[in-house]
Design brief:
By secondary structure, the protein is an alpha+beta fold. The chain has one domain. 18% of the residues lie in helices and 42% in strands. The chain has 1 helix and 3 strands. The protein has a 3-stranded mixed sheet. Strand 1, helix 1 and strand 2 form a beta-alpha-beta unit.
């Protein structure tokens, strides 16, 4: 199981759905998926 997932691309959505918590990274900004 994957607890946390971070990405800067929405193309990683399948992995984000697999993780318990997913975050979108934009520069120094981190926000919930």
């Amino acid at each position: 199981d994957m607890d946390d997932f971070y990405s800067d691309s929405y193309s990683d959505d399948p992995l984000a759905q697999y993780a318990k918590r997913a975050f979108m990274v934009a520069g120094t900004n981190i926000k919930p998926w």
